[in-house]
Sequence to fold (132 residues):
Amino acid sequence: MTIKSLKTLKTVLAVAAISLTGALATEQASAANLAPTEVTIQAESGGDFFGYVHSSNSSCEANRKVTLFKMVGSTPDRHVDKKVASDIAQPNGPDGMWATGNTGLRKGKFYARVGKTSLCGADISPVVKALP
Fold:
């Protein structure tokens, strides 16, 4: 390899490193600008679950997919836990409301998760026990 090609390679690698650093910084900055979102959950007798999606940005509350999970282990892990149901949060007062209807599940621990969007953050609800 010649000295000229080594200099060219170093220049290309430097430009690539700067570009990658800029892309990562932009991604981190945009993640920091997501509107914080909170999802809640309540269990009712007979396997019904419902809750609300709340955010300081009202456009982050309605039309958000909320997924209900049944915990398999001792802590929430959406990659391992069983997906039970999902709903799209609908406007209800100041927040978006979601509800699963009757899942028939009367035992176990459950939580809800709302995913992030381009403007809104993700969240996992507290864990609740199903009510008989």
Summary: The chain has two domains: 1-33, 37-129. Strands lie at 37-39, 42-44, 48-55, 65-70, 82-88, 90-92, 95-102, 109-114, 123-124, 128-129. Residues 23-29 have pLDDT under 50 and may be disordered. The longest strand covers residues 48-55.
